Structures are given as structure tokens and as C-alpha cells.
């Protein structure tokens, strides 16, 4: 064989080997599959990562949730586990085990922990005057982040709400939704509003009652007092009108059954007064 051919073969072989050898040097992590939390009947879950191959000995490992290191999870073992004893929707998220090495970059594996969203904040009611603006919101925990919808509930029927009326605006962030209604209409806007969070695992909803008061409402206490005064005046006037003719009759009428009655009444009154003394 020609020496050049041998050289060529060696170079070719080297090039072919190169990706293979680097791939073999890459650390390999065997991690748990994704986990779906059943929040209704919580069972402990354990996330596991095993470092199966590594180019150099690893230093230590730790766990992260949503990009933040979880404290007190650093160990020196090649196999590491993170246990959630009583899983709640809040515990769902993107978990990651990270291995550190003396002379090589970190290696990591991601485990998705998913749960039905739970709404952790909303208004029970919102009370406004007509013409004012209302702001309703809902916020959630639960991974993956939900898609949000709003509807106005009327008994068993409902109307989906969107931006199309020009008076209602919905803004959504990952785990937060806000419904703004401007220039409140006392005829169409009061009612029960429901926010609905839906992700791949499930959905959940919460309601807010929106009350809209008439602009005359602040006048009502004043009108009440006014009505009381009017009623009092009417009673006094009527009483006076009925009393005066009686007195006149009493004075003018000669002795008779009526007169006796009224004197008896006076006597009764005197007795009663004496008794109370
Ligand atoms: C990874 O772990 C699973 C068990 O959880 C096992 O069946 C599988 O063989 C492991 N793979 C490797 C490459 O170690
Ligand atoms: C990790 O290793 C442990 C024992 O060393 C084994 O029981 C477990 O199934 C492994 N899990 C994975 C995901 O490789
Ligand atoms: C996880 O590994 C990827 C490359 O596989 C790297 O880009 C990323 O920065 C690592 N993340 C952490 C938190 O170590
Ligand atoms: C909502 O999501 C943001 C980022 O997407 C995060 O910073 C915040 O902690 C989350 N809040 C809740 C209650 O999950
Ligand atoms: C509704 O309108 C608001 C404000 O103009 C905007 O930020 C939002 O993205 C709109 N929402 C939808 C679902 O179109
Ligand atoms: C929430 O919305 C989803 C998707 O539109 C629907 O299937 C579900 O019935 C709604 N849930 C509630 C409680 O309204």
C-alpha cells in the first residue's frame, strides 16, 4: 500500500471518529419522565436524575425550579432525587437537575411537572357607579400557564367576552388576566363575570359579581330625609285639621252623649296620669 493512501485512511478515520468520541464524552443524565400532579388526591412524587456517563468526575448536583435553584438540594451523589410530599398546583413547573464538573461545563436535564391551573386570586365583587370604569382580574398557579377566557354568566346561559365591543378590554399575561370595562352602563354591565383558566391538564374558573349604582345613588339618603320631613308635615297638618273641628264641636255642643264620653275620657286620663306618678 502506498504510504499516502495509509495517511489518507488514517485522516479519514480520525475525522469519522471525532464526533463519535466527543459524543461519548458528553455526560448523560437519565431523568424521570414528565409528571402530572393530581391535586385533588395528592400523592407524594419523586423526581429522579441519574448521571450515567461523564467525561470527568462530577463535583455536585442540585435542583432548580422555574430557573431558580432550590435550596438544600446540593449533593455529591451521581443519583439525585427531589421529593414533593404533598403536591399542590403551585408545585408544578419546569424542574431541572444540574451537575457541575471541575473542568467541564454544567450538564442538566429538565423534568416537566404539570397540573391543572388553580386560581389563587380574584375579586369576589366590584361595586362602581355608572360611567366609571371596572377592573376585574384572576391570577393562577399551575404549569403549563393557562389560556384565559372571560364570560358573563346569566343563570345557565353565558356570553363569551372579547374586545369587540370597544368598551371591554381583556389583557392576558402568563398567569394573570385582567378585564377592564370602561364607562359602565347600568343596564347592560351589572352581573356575574367568570374567568376561566385552561391548560393541557384541565381547567378551572372563578366568578366576580359586578354591581353598578345609579349616579343618583348618593342622593338617596338626602331624598330619604326629605321624604320623612314631608310625611311628618303631612301627619301634623292632618292631625291639626281633624283636632280643631272636634274642639269647636265640644265647646259649642250642649250636654249630650258625646259630651259625657269626652268627660269620661278626661277622667280616664287623669286616673292614668295619677297611676303613672
Ligand atoms: C433510565 O432509567 C430507566 C428507569 O427509570 C431505565 O429503564 C433505563 O434503562 C435507564 N436508561 C439508562 C440509559 O440508564
Ligand atoms: C436511577 O438509579 C436508581 C438506582 O441507582 C434506580 O432505582 C432508578 O430507577 C434510576 N432512575 C432513573 C430515572 O434512571
Ligand atoms: C442546561 O444545559 C444547556 C445545554 O445543554 C445549557 O445551555 C444551559 O445553560 C444549562 N442550564 C443550566 C441552568 O445549567
Ligand atoms: C407568574 O408568572 C411570572 C412569570 O411568568 C412569575 O414571575 C410569577 O412568580 C408567577 N406568579 C405566580 C403566582 O405563579
Ligand atoms: C384587548 O385590548 C387590549 C388593550 O387594547 C390589548 O392589550 C389586548 O391584547 C386585547 N386582547 C385581545 C384578546 O385582543
Ligand atoms: C373553561 O373553558 C373551557 C374551554 O373553553 C371549557 O371546556 C370549560 O368547560 C370551561 N370551564 C368552566 C368551569 O367554565
Automatic annotation (TrEMBL):
Residues 1-23 form the signal peptide. The keyword Ion transport does not apply. Pfam families: Ig_3. GO terms for cellular component: axon; plasma membrane. Keywords: Cell membrane, Disulfide bond, Glycoprotein, Immunoglobulin domain, Membrane, Signal, Transmembrane, Transmembrane helix. PANTHER family: BASIGIN RELATED (PTHR10075), NEUROPLASTIN (PTHR10075:SF108). This is Neuroplastin b isoform X1. It comes from Parambassis ranga (Indian glassy fish). The gene is nptnb.
Amino acid at each position: 500500500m502506498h504510504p499516502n493512501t495509509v495517511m489518507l485512511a488514517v485522516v479519514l478515520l480520525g475525522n469519522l471518529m471525532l464526533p463519535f468520541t466527543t459524543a461519548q464524552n458528553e455526560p448523560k443524565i437519565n431523568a424521570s419522565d414528565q409528571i402530572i400532579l393530581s391535586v385533588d388526591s395528592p400523592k407524594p412524587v419523586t423526581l429522579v436524575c441519574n448521571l450515567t456517563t461523564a467525561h470527568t468526575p462530577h463535583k455536585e448536583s442540585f435542583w432548580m425550579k422555574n430557573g431558580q435553584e432550590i435550596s438544600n438540594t446540593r449533593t455529591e451523589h451521581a443519583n439525585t432525587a427531589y421529593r414533593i410530599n404533598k403536591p399542590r398546583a403551585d408545585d408544578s413547573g419546569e424542574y431541572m437537575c444540574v451537575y457541575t464538573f471541575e473542568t467541564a461545563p454544567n450538564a442538566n436535564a429538565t423534568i416537566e411537572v404539570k397540573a391543572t391551573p388553580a386560581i389563587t386570586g380574584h375579586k369576589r365583587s366590584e361595586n362602581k357607579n355608572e360611567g366609571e370604569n371596572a377592573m376585574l382580574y384572576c391570577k393562577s398557579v399551575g404549569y403549563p400557564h393557562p389560556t384565559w377566557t372571560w364570560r358573563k354568566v346569566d343563570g345557565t346561559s353565558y356570553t363569551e367576552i372579547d374586545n369587540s365591543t370597544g368598551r371591554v378590554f381583556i389583557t392576558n399575561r402568563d398567569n394573570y388576566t385582567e378585564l377592564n370595562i370602561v364607562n359602565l352602563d347600568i343596564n347592560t354591565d351589572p352581573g356575574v363575570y367568570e374567568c376561566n383558566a385552561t391548560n393541557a391538564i384541565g381547567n378551572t374558573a372563578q366568578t366576580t359579581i359586578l354591581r353598578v349604582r345609579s349616579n343618583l345613588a348618593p342622593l338617596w339618603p338626602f331624598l330619604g330625609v326629605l321624604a320623612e320631613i314631608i310625611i311628618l308635615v303631612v301627619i301634623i297638618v292632618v292631625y291639626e285639621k281633624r283636632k280643631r273641628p272636634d274642639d269647636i264641636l265640644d265647646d259649642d255642643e250642649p250636654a249630650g252623649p258625646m259630651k259625657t264620653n269626652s268627660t269620661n275620657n278626661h277622667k280616664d286620663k287623669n286616673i292614668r296620669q295619677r297611676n303613672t306618678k
